[in-house]
Give the backbone structure.
Amino acid sequence: MLVDLVQLTIFGLVVGGIFALGAVGVSLLFGILRFANFAHGDMMTLGAYLALVFVGPLALPMWVAFPAALAGTALAAVAIDRALFKRLRRASPVILLISSFGLALILRSLIQIIWGPENIVYWTDIVLPWRLGEIRIRPPHVVMLAVTVALVVALHLFLTRTRIGKAMRAMADDPDLARITGIPTERVILWTWALGGALAAAAGIFLAVDTRLNPLLGWNVLLPVFAAALLGGIGKPYGAIAGGFLLGVAGEVSTLVLDPVYKPAVAFAVIVLVLVYRPTGLFGGR
Amino acid sequence: MTALLEMRAVRGGYGGVDILNGIDLAVREREIVVVIGPNGAGKSTAMKAIFGLVAVREGEIRFKGQDITNMAPERLVPLGLSYVPQERNVFPSLTVQENLELGAYVRRDDAAAELAEVLALFPVLEERRQQAVGTMSGGERQMVAIGRALMTRPELLLLDEPTAGLSPRATELIFERIRAINQKGVAILMVEQNAKQALAFADRAYVLVGGANRYEDSGPAVLAHPEIAEMFLGG
Ligand SMILES: Nc1ncnc2c1ncn2[C@@H]1O[C@H](COP(=O)(O)OP(=O)(O)O)[C@@H](O)[C@H]1O
Ligand SMILES: [Mg+2]
C-alpha cells in the first residue's frame, strides 16, 4: 500500500508537471486577454510534433530538439496572435473563446494532415526502469521532472527579475491599470503568447515521451490543464503550477480507490468544486 | 502663467452615448485644481477622457500645448502626465516595490532616486516594500497608487477621489501628502467627495453637473458660494 502510494505519487508528479506547464500559459493568457484558450492543448500537440521533426527527419538529439521545438512553438503562438487574436482585441470574451475553439480544430486538423492520425513514438528502444527496493523509476521520468523544475525556476526568475516579466504579472493582475501605468501592453501580450507556447510545447513533448504522439495528444489533457489553472486562481502563474502538481498527484493516487478510467473525472470534479466553493482559486485572490 | 492642461468643449463617452456634454477645464503649472459634482456627473469620465481611456468625439485636449486628444496612455505617460484611477489603482498580487518600479516602466533608466523620494514621502511603505499590496489597508494602498504615479516625475498628476473610503485620519494624511507633492512643483487635478477639506486648499475648483461645467472659481470662493454649499457641502 505505502509502496503503491509512493509509486503513484512519483507518476503523479510527472503528470502534474505536464499539467502545470500547460496551465501556466492558460492562466497568464486568461489574466491578460480575458479568455480561456481552447487551442492550448493543440499548441502542446504542435510542440510535440515539432520535436518529432527535429529528432526524426533531422536526426538531432533530444537535448537539441527540445529547445528548438519550444522556440518553434513560441514563434507559432506569436504568429497566431498576429494573424487572429490581434484583430479581436476589443471583441467580447465569448467571441475570443469561440475563436480559440476554432483555432484548436484548425491546428489539430493541420497536424493530422501533415503527420497522419496514427500513434508515433520518438524512440523505439526500451529503457529499463531503475529499482529502488520495490519502487520502480523510469529514467525519462527523472529527466522530465528535473527539466520541469528547471523550467519553473526559470519562469520564476523571468516573472520576478525581468522588466517584461513583472509587467506580465502586473497585466495579469489588472490590464487596464497596466495601460494607465504606460506599460506597452501589446509587447507584453506577445511575450505572453511566446512564453505560453514554449511551456505548452515542453508539456506536449513530455506527454508524448510518457505516452505516444497522436493528433489528440494535447486536446485530451485540456480538461485537467484548465482545472489546474482554475484551481490555482486564474491569472496567477504560481497558483497554476501548484494546481497542476496537485491535480496530477490527486489523479494518480485516486486510482488506489477508483477505477483508472475515472481519472479524467477527478479533474472534472475539481473544476466543479472550485467553481462552486472557491471561484477565485485555492490560494485566494480577487 | 501658461496652461499645462486645457480641455475645450469636450464631448464623448462610452459607446454611443455622450456622458461629457462639452467640458472646459484648465490646469496651470503648479496649481491644485479640484473637481466636484454629484455622483454620475461625469467627473471620472472626464479624467478618463484626458487619459485616452474614453473616446473624445468632439473638442480637444492639450497638454503643454500639444494636442493629446484620444492619445493612448502609453504615449501620455512619457509626456509627464500620471493618473490614479478611482478604483483598482494598484496591482494587488505585486509587492509595494514592484508596484512602484512598474510606475517607472516607461523610463528606460534606473529609477532608484524616484523610488527613494516616494518612500521618503510615504515612510510607512519603506518597511513594507516586500509586502503584497493586496494585503494592505485602504490608506496604504492609496499611498502605493499615488507613489506609482509619481515614479515618472509627472508635471501633472490626475487623482480620482484619492480619499474615497478612507478614515478621517488617513484622509487627512493623504491630503497633507498631496500638498507636499504639489510643493515640489507637481500640478494636481483632483476629483474629490470630501469637498470641504479639498476646496480649502485648492487654488481653483470646478463644479460639474450632468457632464457640463456648472461653476468655477477659486477653491475658497466655491466653498463660500451659497448654492454650491447647499448642493454638495451639506448646507
Ligand atoms: N464603463 C462605463 N460604461 C458605460 N457607462 C459608464 C461607465 N462608467 C460610467 N458610466 C456612466 O457615466 C456616467 C458618469 O459616470 P462617472 O464619470 O463615473 O461619474 P462620477 O465620477 O462623476 O461619479 C454615469 O451615468 C455612469 O453610469
Ligand atoms: Mg467617479
